[in-house]
């Protein structure tokens, strides 16, 4: 088996990272104001924004996690990507046009229009918390890849991943994220395709794969409908209320292009999910005794150096692409909802730009410590998505039922959803009920109660706040 700490793998990955740094450096002139840093400073084609959003949702955590689940249960692991594809279709139909026409590029600003400033702050906190949880899973999966293919300690690999990711994304702001994530997504697709081709070749083809695995591994619902529906709730909910998606759809020139970008993502999601699940299944045949988290990395470590270098570059690129999305979204919320109102009321652009750059670095480095002890990558990734599902309920109410519930009910929904969902996750999802269900029903119940009880007290006007 070839050694992939060799100069060929390292050189390919290094050259790829250098090219990304040059792209970021080249567009830095478009990030010399806080607004341009967080918006990209212009309008972009729909296909480019489609790849931008795709890169965030097919990050290393999802690909490694899907292969890990495919290693254990088979092809039904692909449902977590199918759920995201469905989420983007629904987002295009229900929300993309409304977000674009509203023109507000923060999720907290959208909710504050109907539910007031308390809800703005609570929304920012839960969104940042959810994004940081996603970052934990990203670092853990990225560290697993680098540790395996470069034969270094996992802790060292995670630290390297975190530091390099933060330095890369802080250079050029949103414009650099848009351009580099297009490259990330394309190379990630190529990498997964190469890994799948290699795995099937080693197994002897799809027929031999079927012959060597139990029939249940090819059952599209083997994971269970409870898990599939939970993935749908978490995936669809996260798309509806993800800060990064809202920023992305506001970078195109009109609402129609925002919808087209979402359809592009949905189309590309499906084959990627099937490919990642099949990679895990190939590893189950080739390396039945490895830890499931190592299903994808172990397959890469068996490839020739040139092909492995391309796959590793793709995985590394998707890792940095997702971290850039998480860091940019969190930093934008910290800037708009906390720093400018409280510490920069005069709106000095120099101060805001300095803060958002520092915030990008801080939120990128923070999750590293937790990533060192994380091994259930896909479960952690979907906890982050589940937390955003509770916000999606309120987003749909803002646009389609603005008079339902109260401002106080919205605020309590967010706080209760955060506490209940995380507690349920830490308790191990009792009785087999996924935490995504808790995230979905908590705001529905609280807003329903607030809507009914407000009739018994003086009417509580909904706040029409400007963002």
Tell me briefly what this model is:
This protein is an all-alpha fold and 467 residues long. The chain has 19 helices and no strands.
If you had to describe this structure to a student in words, what would you say it looks like?
It is found in: Membrane. Its main location: membrane. GO terms for molecular function: symporter activity. It holds the Pfam family SSF. About 60% of the residues are buried. The protein is mostly helical and about 475 residues long. The protein contains 19 helices and no strands.
Any chance you could write out the topology, listing elements then pairs?
Layout: H1 7-26, H2 34-39, H3 46-57, H4 60-73, H5 79-102, H6 107-115, H7 117-149, H8 154-203, H9 206-212, H10 225-240, H11 243-249, H12 255-286, H13 295-301, H14 305-343, H15 349-365, H16 368-371, H17 377-400, H18 407-426, H19 435-453
GO molecular function, one term: symporter activity
Transmembrane segments: 6-25, 46-65, 77-96, 121-142, 154-171, 178-200, 220-240, 261-287, 307-335, 355-372, 378-400, 407-427, 433-452
Pfam family, one: SSF
Any idea how many domains? 1
Number of strands: 0
CATH homologous superfamily (4th level) name: Sodium/glucose cotransporter
Overall shape: it is globular
Taking Cα atoms only, what radius of gyration do you get, to the nearest Å? 22 Å
Task: Give the proportion of residues in helices.
Answer: over 70%
Order of helices and strands: HHHHHHHHHHHHHHHHHHH
Gap from first CA to last CA: 58 Å
Q: How is the main sheet built?
A: none
CATH topology: Sodium/glucose cotransporter
Annotation field: number of helices:
19
Architecture (CATH level 2) name = Up-down Bundle
Structural class: mainly alpha
Portion of residues in beta strands equals under 5%
Low-confidence stretches: 1-5, 457-467
* Mean pLDDT reading: 82
> Any idea of the CATH class?
Mainly Alpha
